[in-house]
Amino acid sequence: MAEAMRQTVAGMLKGIERYNPDNLTTLEKYVEIQSRENAYDLEANLAVLKLYQLNPHRFNMDITCQILLKALTNLPHTDFVLCKCLLSEKLMSESPINQIMYLGDILERCDFQHFWDRVLSMSELCDRIVGFQDSIRKFVCHVVGITFQTIDRALLAQLLGGVDDATLKHWVKKYGWKEETKTIIFVANQDENIKTKNITEKIDFENVAGLMAACL
């Protein structure tokens, strides 16, 4: 259903029609479909927030929260920042939007253990987004992959949200990591990821002639 809606919505986002408030009902329905079916359409979601900005009397807190949580699932991309730019400071200070803002701050700091604790206290909000936790785990694995060479097995399980052994093995296999020992997981040889770059500068005499003359 999400794919069928995507084509319909794409037509609504062309030209001046993008700012037609009559499209909000359809666009809001599309946001809810994304949440239920683990789909994602940033352009459509930004259009919803823009329409709320232009038509504040049509603002829907529930839809806005879903859009923000969906944006978090696409980290490390900057979708969440783009969404924040379409919200006023007043709105961002209101609950439960302020709670989602805090989640974004925690993820930006890569304080994953604290993040999972907060998610537990917001389960009613986060559980509406199908695939939310696994999407965040992808981001965790991305950060681990560019940060660690080896990582303690127990620490990785905590970073992934206190997952059980079977789930931990799933993510280790998914990213091609290897269990070196019963307690240590080999992630990557970070030295191999360092790429040297030769920089050659070409300066013509004409470019420095004026400077040399000024020094005389």
- Using only CA atoms, what is the Rg? 23 Å
Count of DSSP E strands? Answer: 3
Fraction of residues in H or I helices: 55-70%
Largest β-sheet summary? 3 strands, antiparallel
**Which regions have little confidence, pLDDT < 50, spanning 5+ residues?**
none
| Relevant CATH superfamily of the domain at 1-123 | ARM repeat, domain 1
**Highest-level CATH class of the domain at 1-123:** Mainly Alpha
**What is the strand arrangement across the widest sheet?**
1-3-2
CATH topology of the domain at 1-123: Serine Threonine Protein Phosphatase 5, Tetratricopeptide repeat
What is the strand content?
Answer: under 5%
SSE order: HHHHHHHHHHEHHEEH
Mean pLDDT: 90
What assembly state would you assign to the polypeptide chains in this entry? single chain
CATH architecture tag of the domain at 1-123:
Alpha Horseshoe
Structural class: mainly alpha
Note the gap between the termini: 76 Å
Global geometry: globular
Give a description of the structure.
There is one protein chain. With 216 residues, the protein is mainly alpha-helical. It has a domain at 1-123: ARM repeat, domain 1 (Serine Threonine Protein Phosphatase 5, Tetratricopeptide repeat). Helices cover 60% and strands 4% of the residues. The chain has 13 helices and three strands; from the N terminus they run ααααααααααβααββα. The protein has helices spanning 2-12, 24-37, 42-54, 61-72, 79-84, 89-92, 97-108, 112-121, 123-126, 132-147, 153-159, 165-174, 205-215; strands spanning 150-152, 178-179, 184-186. It has a three-stranded antiparallel beta sheet with strand order 1-3-2. Strand 2 (178-179) and strand 3 (184-186) form a beta hairpin. Helix 1 (2-12) runs antiparallel to helix 2, helix 2 packs antiparallel against helix 3 and helix 4 (61-72) packs parallel to helix 7 (97-108).
